[in-house]
């Protein structure tokens, strides 16, 4: 799944491809590496198209019978129709009631939206994470730049996650 950005060279090219055409990948950027059972609980925070690596990690953990890590996914999107794989995530909640929880929030909800409203804020995290700030936890974030800056901080500002008690070593950007 690739989001097309108006004027975006790569995403526009990808969206122009037809079935049967080829794309050559010259390499992969190495991101954070996952080790099963390294921590008791992993929190994945996704914004918009940033759901893609979060979904893959959740799928990998839940699909590995040897990995007993609990997963909480917090997923912010613009509108209800921007929430991807909702059915699959709700299915995971039923299949793994003690290990998988998902929280959706939309910043521009439709009239009939039943989802939580707003962005990923301190109060949403406090509500969704009973073990907020726990040292037995790792947090992974992938979202638009403004969301990542708010959660992870910048060179000159502390991010929300640190303010809520997570250590720098617990916080990862995909
Ligand atoms: C490892 C990795 C893999 C990736 N894989 C893919 C991929 O497969 N496909 C793809 O298309 N892109 C991918 N990306 C790109 C990246 O995830 C998106 O470009 C990025 O998340 C932008 O999202 P968006 O434009 O959909 O966000 P938007 O739709 O603009 O926003 C999403 C949500 O963020 C909220 N938000 C905005 N600002 C803030 C804020 N300050 N605080 C809190 N919430 C805020 C909005 O309200 C909204 O709810 C990947 C990136 C990385 C690092």
Radius of gyration from CA coordinates: 17 Å
Helical amount among residues, as a percent range?
25-40%
Q: Please provide the count of β strands.
A: 6
Please give the domain count: 1
Count of helices? 6
Mind explaining what this structure looks like?
With 174 residues, the chain is of the alpha/beta class. The protein has one domain: Rossmann fold (3-Layer(aba) Sandwich). The chain contains six helices and six strands; from the N terminus they run αβαβαββαβααβ. The chain has helices at 9-16, 51-62, 86-95, 122-128, 145-152, 160-163, and strands at residues 41-47, 70-77, 100-106, 116-117, 137-142, 171-173. The mean pLDDT is 96. Bound molecules: flavin-adenine dinucleotide (FAD). Flavin-adenine dinucleotide binds at residues 1-3, 31, 47-50, 52-53, 76-78, 107, 119-120, 142-144, 146-147, 150, 174. GO terms for molecular function: cytochrome-b5 reductase activity, acting on NAD(P)H. It is a single-pass membrane protein.
Brief synopsis:
With 174 residues, the protein is of the alpha/beta class. The protein has a single domain (39-173), classed as 3-Layer(aba) Sandwich (Rossmann fold), CATH 3.40.50.80. The chain is 28% helix and 19% strand.
Task: Describe the SSE topology.
Layout: H1 9-16, E1 41-47, H2 51-62, E2 70-77, H3 86-95, E3 100-106, E4 116-117, H4 122-128, E5 137-142, H5 145-152, H6 160-163, E6 171-173
Parallel strand pairs: 1-2, 1-5, 2-3, 3-4, 5-6
The structure holds flavin-adenine dinucleotide.
Flavin-adenine dinucleotide (FAD) is lined by residues 1-3, 31, 47-50, 52-53, 76-78, 107, 119-120, 142-144, 146-147, 150, 174.
């Amino acid at each position: 799944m690739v989001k097309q950005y108006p004027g975006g060279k790569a995403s526009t090219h990808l969206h122009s491809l037809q079935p049967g055409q080829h794309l050559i990948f010259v390499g992969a950027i190495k991101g954070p590496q996952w080790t099963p059972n390294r921590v008791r609980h992993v929190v994945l925070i996704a914004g918009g198209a940033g759901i893609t690596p979060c979904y893959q990690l959740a799928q990998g953990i839940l699909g590995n019978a040897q990995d007993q890590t609990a997963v909480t996914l917090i997923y912010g999107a613009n509108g209800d129709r921007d929430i991807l794989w909702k059915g699959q995530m709700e299915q995971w909640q039923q299949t793994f009631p003690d290990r998988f929880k998902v929280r959706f929030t939309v910043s521009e909800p439709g009239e009939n939206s039943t989802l939580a409203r707003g962005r990923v804020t301190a109060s949403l995290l406090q509500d969704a994470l009973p073990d907020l700030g726990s040292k037995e936890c790792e947090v992974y974030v992938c979202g638009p730049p403004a969301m990542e800056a708010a959660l992870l901080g910048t060179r000159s500002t502390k991010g929300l996650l640190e303010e809520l008690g997570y250590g720098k070593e617990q916080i990862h950007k995909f």
